[in-house]
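Appendix B. Raw example, untouched.
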Amino acid sequence: VQLVESGGGLVQTGESLRLSCVASGFTFDDYAIGWFRQAPGKEREGVSCISSDNRPVYYADSVKGRFTISSDNAKNTVYLQMNSLKPEDTAVYHCASGKACLTAMLGLGSWGQGTQVTVSS
């Protein structure tokens, strides 16, 4: 099982980024894929999750209305479109797989190395 994130970077407040998570080594259609983030000195936070049947089932209150999760099953890829970014969104973003979204976002399944997102004020 392998999950590889990309798309992070340094942006200014109000700008956008799109993160990608490419999955391999398992039947993509059978798993939920979630994103969680980890900032220095803060607890891990579940950000968003999409179910195995491509339904966005979770957004953290802190990102509702700004982030959108989507999936391209033909490419075994999940995207996280992040708009109106804020300094408090700065973190390492990891994607994770699980049989259910809760499993994925708690990091109980497989997860990738992460991609750094830094939002300057």
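End of appendix B.
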